[in-house]
Write a sequence for this structure.
């Protein structure tokens, strides 16, 4: 349902939220990048009021090869994967992202996973653009070059290729048992047979992007530039958080004096710390102004003949704490 430009759930989104919460609850290590991707796709679909003025309308971000190349529209190129046409489209893709993202991020780490998703998104979109442009040679302009598409499924197909690349197991794809390493190809064909309106080139581009990513990863032994960029960005954004945590980290206090490192500062300032109540006393006193313990740790009664009488000590204490 669309209400004033914002979407209202028909019941599938609460089920997605419940399933996501259940999956994350059982995990000892919670994958943050997967959670961020789920949240980003869902918020973009729901378009809450505080994002209404920031998010472009879906009509401005449809992936369309003709418009992207003609106007050099990078907005359509990079944002179209995060938009979905309806609730079922979103929920189906997010359930797939949840399952694949948890496995991949847990096994390779959050920074590596984030760099992989960024690379797969760029390559899958680029492959789709290249395929649609190439098909102009065979007069497929109407079918593919001017096609409109949105959704995260191209990236999901690429993630499926990466996830199943090193396994010899078998898996079911819509009820058909196939080798896991060929599951993406089987799903591409079956989805196209049963749901012909989906973007065939978008899914095919995702598969080819996954294969290209694996090839580049095997053949290139140097540092991953995308990972370095993401690591630097994460360090920049986490620095303010660490600073705030350091400023507001709780410290232990007892009485009017701090314990631990403050004792050294007290000695340097000409005060001494009571061994019983840790109160900081003036260096002119030999008896604790708070509890009456002697400076050397002896009981107050043994210090009555010291610098101050009991009445004088009480009077000073009252004056000090009545200010």
């Amino acid at each position: 349902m669309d209400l004033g430009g914002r979407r209202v759930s028909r019941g599938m989104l609460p089920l997605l939220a419940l399933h996501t919460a259940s999956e994350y609850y059982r995990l000892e290590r919670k994958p943050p990048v997967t959670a961020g991707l789920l949240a980003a796709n869902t918020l973009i679909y729901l378009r809450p009021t505080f994002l209404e003025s920031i998010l472009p309308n879906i009509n401005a971000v449809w992936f369309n090869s003709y418009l992207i190349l003609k106007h050099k529209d990078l907005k359509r190129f990079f944002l179209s994967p995060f938009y979905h046409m309806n609730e079922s489209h979103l929920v189906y893709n997010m359930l797939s992202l949840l399952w694949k993202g948890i496995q991949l991020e847990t096994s390779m780490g959050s920074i590596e996973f984030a760099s992989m998703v960024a690379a797969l998104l760029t390559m899958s979109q680029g492959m789709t653009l290249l395929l649609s442009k190439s098909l102009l040679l065979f007069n497929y302009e109407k079918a593919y070059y001017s096609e409109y598409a949105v959704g995260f499924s191209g990236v999901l197909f690429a993630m499926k290729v990466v996830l199943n690349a090193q396994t010899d197991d078998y898996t079911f794809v819509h009820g058909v048992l196939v080798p896991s390493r060929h599951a993406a190809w089987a799903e591409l064909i079956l989805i196209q047979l049963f749901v012909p309106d989906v973007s065939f080139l978008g899914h095919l581009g995702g598969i080819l992007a996954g294969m290209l990513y694996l090839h580049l990863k095997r053949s290139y032994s140097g540092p991953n530039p995308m990972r370095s960029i993401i690591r630097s960005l994460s360090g920049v954004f986490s620095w303010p958080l660490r600073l705030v945590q350091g400023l507001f980290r709780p410290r232990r206090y007892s009485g009017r004096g701090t314990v631990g490192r403050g004792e050294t500062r007290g000695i340097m300032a000409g005060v001494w710390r009571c061994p019983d109540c840790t109160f900081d006393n003036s260096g002119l006193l030999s008896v604790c102004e708070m509890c009456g313990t002697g400076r050397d740790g002896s009981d107050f009664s043994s210090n009555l003949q010291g610098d101050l009488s009991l009445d004088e000590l009480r009077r000073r204490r009252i004056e000090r704490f009545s200010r």
User: Anything to note?
Assistant: Confidence is low (pLDDT under 50) at residues 251-269, 300-306. Residues 262-321 form one domain.
